[in-house]
Amino acid sequence: MELIENIQKTWREDTAEPILVNVDAKANEIWTSAMMEQPKQAWRWDLFFRYAAAILFLAGSLFWVLSTADFGESEQIDTLSIAPTFILRENIPGQKTKVFLPDGSIAYLNSSSSLKYLENFEGLERRVVLIGEAYFEVSKDEKKPFIVESKNIETVALGTAFNVNTFNLNEIRISLIEGKVGINHTESTDKLATLNPGKELLINPTTQQFLEQSFEIEDVIGWKLGKLVFNHASLEEVSRRLERWYGVKITVKGSVSAAWKISTVYENQSLKNVLTDLQYSKKFAYEIKDSNVTITF
Predict the structure, then answer these.
(1) What CATH number matches the domain at 226-296, 3.55.50.30, 3.90.70.10, 1.20.140.10, 3.40.50.720?
(2) Is the pLDDT of residue 18 over 50?
């Protein structure tokens, strides 16, 4: 009975009136709304593409600038990497060195002298530039001549031993010990002379006048063996040689005869011993103070 009463009660309650919807009208409303929003949506996409295009353009421009800068730096590095590298060997007064050259040749470099050359002797020749004095023992290479450039004179060798002395401002002295050398002017293809062993060429670099003569080996390369050799040397020449040999500065006071000459050899001697020996034969007084020497007549 209770169940029947509940059913009857529910039936008698008021129910909400159903809402009737016009399907065609609702479809038209949705279509109209979509058409009204479409321009707004299209405008937003257009703005997006504009910004995207601008960003791509800036990014491309920046990449181009950076690429150009890197290329320039690389080009500069490449240019620097192919630049020739020169080696410079210099001796101060009182210093002598043995220089091993890239081709196996050896240069004995005297004091107050310098030698300059390409690091690996690149090219078709083995060229060294000499200031001062050096003795060369040249490795043989017929396809690549060895050239010593001193002032405006070239000494050309294939495999030989020779000495080049440019200490005298008015004279270049080229002395051949063994082998054969050709001597040229740097600004001309004409050969000045071809030397045989035991011969030397004395050249005036200004006038280009030259004299070929024989020489004493000890007189030319004694310095390489530790010998200080004087052969009819004037006081001026002796002073210059002692300055280079011992790294000192010599000042001469008093009157000196033009006939002042000395011929002697000192081997592995100190400056004091040399000056003391000269003092007895040439009658002068001397004083050594640090690196300064005063000779008084």
Answers:
(1) 3.55.50.30
(2) no
Q: What's the pLDDT tens digit per position in 144-170?
A: 999 999 988 999 997 899 999 999 989
Predicted confidence at residue 208, as pLDDT, reads 82
Q: Assess whether pLDDT exceeds 90 at residue 275.
A: yes
CA–CA separation, 240 and 295 (whole Å): 13
Q: Cα torsion for 153, 156, 162, 163, to the nearest 10°?
A: 20
**What's the predicted TM-score (pTM) here?**
0.71
